[in-house]
Write a structure and sequence with these properties.
five-stranded parallel sheet, 6% strand, 5 strands, 292 residues, single chain, mainly alpha
């Protein structure tokens, strides 16, 4: 089999390069069954599993979907508020069907990972994948990528400049950190990370019937995954997305896209003001010359 293909950013995340769909999923219903859910903690290969499930024919939801439909952020905020802050009604199967109804798979990343037990209960026929890393290796990656990005002053500043695109995504991820992990700063998130990791895996194993659960190791390739899902092995290499590299690429593209959107809005305002100013000047000049 040929070596793994290095995916381009467009191949990894086509949603970053498509126009906003502006879909209010609260008006939707389920159109395909939910078949498989990857419920490991962030920084355990969620992007690689998403890519693998898409190759196998599933339409897999991941938090990167936000970038093609920013309105999802508000719905996830409602779900977190209801479950963790006791504001609103907790989501039930119809709510999840509206939010995830176009998807046959989920590769959990913030904020979906905060609803593992809810999703297992809502979709009793769906199979569950659990990818776990050695905890210290995982922690180093989580600290360097998730925690660093979550409390980055630069990302906070860029998000404040862009309340239309970066801002909603930032608020949704911040709510995940404060509501689910009960962390209100980088130091507190680091202190609680290992406990949250262990508790999450214990929870998923406790609520998932053994016959529905695959404990998958990154590097095992297509064999165990395809056998578990009843799928033929694809004639392409298993996707290996370098999560740390991919996340940094993703953040860079997202920030550029958000700031470019800000610049376009500012430019439109400047052009409108310029046209208005020119009209006023021409009218004033005409009045001064007695022609208006």
């Amino acid at each position: 089999m040929p070596p793994p293909k290095k995916l381009t950013m467009m191949e990894k995340h086509p949603e970053l390069f498509t126009p906003q769909t502006n879909i209010d999923r609260r008006e939707h219903e389920r159109v395909v069954p939910m078949e498989v859910m990857n419920l490991g903690f962030p920084r355990t290969g969620t992007m690689s599993i998403q890519a693998a499930l898409n190759i196998l024919g599933y339409n897999c939801y991941h938090s990167s979907v936000f970038f093609s439909n920013i309105r999802d952020c508000a719905t996830w905020n409602d779900a977190m508020d209801a479950k963790y802050l006791h504001r609103g009604t907790p989501f039930t199967r119809p709510d999840w069907d509206r939010l995830l109804g176009s998807y046959s798979a989920v590769s959990a990343d913030p904020p979906a990972v905060a609803f593992a037990e809810d999703l297992v209960a809502a979709y009793p026929d769906a199979k569950v994948i659990l990818v776990e890393r050695e905890i210290e290796a995982w922690y180093r990656s989580f600290d360097a990528n998730v925690i660093a990005a979550q409390w980055s002053a630069w990302i906070s500043f860029a998000s404040a400049l862009d309340p239309w695109f970066l801002g909603p995504v930032r608020r949704c991820h911040r709510r995940w950190a404060t509501a689910w992990m009960d962390a209100h700063g980088a130091a507190e998130m680091r202190a609680k990370a290992r406990h949250a990791y262990r508790a999450h895996y214990a929870l998923v194993r406790r609520v998932t019937p053994p016959e529905r659960l695959l404990e998958y190791r990154l590097g095992d390739g297509w064999g165990p995954l395809c056998a578990f899902l009843g799928k033929p092995v694809p004639q392409v290499p298993f996707p290996r997305v370098n999560d740390s590299e991919a996340l940094q690429e993703l953040l860079a593209v997202v920030i550029r896209r958000g700031l470019w959107g800000v610049w376009r809005r500012v430019l439109r305002v400047v052009l409108v003001l310029g046209v208005v100013g020119l009209g006023v000047w021409l009218c004033y000049r005409g009045m001064w010359c007695g022609d208006c």
